[in-house]
Design goal:
The complex is a heterodimer of chains A (102) and B (314).
Chain A: H1 2-5, E1 14-20, E2 28-34, H2 38-49, E3 57-62, H3 74-78, H4 96-101
Antiparallel strand pairs in A: 1-2, 1-3
Chain B: H1 3-15, H2 28-47, H3 49-53, H4 62-87, H5 93-101, H6 118-139, H7 145-173, H8 177-196, H9 208-213, H10 221-238, E1 249-251, E2 256-258, H11 264-274, H12 278-291, H13 293-313
Antiparallel strand pairs in B: 1-2
Helix pairs in contact in B: 2-4, 4-7, 6-7, 6-8, 6-10
Classes of the chains: A alpha+beta (102), B mainly alpha (314).
Amino acid sequence: MSADHSNNNVEWPLWEVFYQPGNGKPFEHAGSVHAPDAEMALQNARDTYARRNEGIAIWVVPSSQITASTPEDVGPFFDPANDKAYRHPQFYSTPRAVKKRT
Amino acid sequence: MNTQEKLKAFQQRIDKGEKIEPKDWMPERYRKQLIRMMSQHAHSEIVGMLPEGNWITRAPSLKRKMVLLAKVQDEAGHGLYLYSATETLGVKRQNLVEDYLYGKAKYSSIFNYPTLSYADICVIGWLVDGAAIVNQTMLAKSSYGPYARANIRICKEESFHKKQGYEMLAKMASGSPDQQKMAQDAVNRWWWPTLMMFGPPDTESPNSAELIKWRVKSKTNDELRQSFVDRSVMEAQAIGIEIPDPDLKYNEETGHWDFGEIPWDEFWRVIKGDGPMNRERLKARRKAYEEGAWVREAAMEYARKKKLKEDKAS
């Protein structure tokens, strides 16, 4: 059905948008925009996701360039972290006198 | 895991209040319902620019013109957040858009009514955006992560929309006799269509039970409608506006405002395409889409040539 009416067979590529909400803050994912190139992706991202100074800096990345972990592998993929309690400070004991002070 | 077990595990995640993310397993029906609901929501935001855009050039002051421009631009933004979120379900934005321009996809019936005076702009902000807030506050807790996040973003901006409308209406309602008449006339025309925005009554809403089971929604159409009526009655009283419903009455027992019968025949007629502005809206949207095609193509071609040049230079 779409094909009959579609007079624009080129859909602009998709870009993922990240913005920095404030000075010193880590970048956050906001959503995506369509744009023909990086420059316009930046402008579209600003108009779409930062109309009220939500961000002080923006990154745009072609969506096709993102590699993500898959939920099916989540168990084995993150498993090595589960049995390493010694990576956390709670694993270690501290003399009572020192503990009180902190 | 077979499908039955997967379904069970999925429901358990939902019941625990977990969010479902794009790459997670989900029932096909959940995906389909979300695509239908989210794209319908997106189309509504985009069509919603038309009735208000109608008054940008005739706003009563520069201040009001700036406010209205900003509001209409926000509606475009809301549409884009929602298309972006819908695309995470593996559909193309262009197909979604064409589905409603040339196919069967729907948008909110409210945008098929005309904006006859500037008072309509006040009332749209107060009632239509007010109703949207009630709905979207619920959707901000939706089980589908990208949809919930898009709605959180929308809700932050929507309260500006409602407040600017309510403030203008209050001003009009305390103005000259003519202004007061205009304000009341607009409320009379928009009240019932606004109540229809929450969808058919629970007894005739085929999708509700399933959407609630999956926590896409957490309240029924009638529950949302009631909370909207309760709030609006109070707000109307505060600015001397009358709600055009002779059956409106406070119910001591329930603590809610009982209201009269909604003209559902009109609702179904508008949904099926026969409202006062259905044809006009679709025509305007198709025109914009078709006449913008060369711009989209030219921008793409410009980007291609620019890249070619850069590649050559390096």
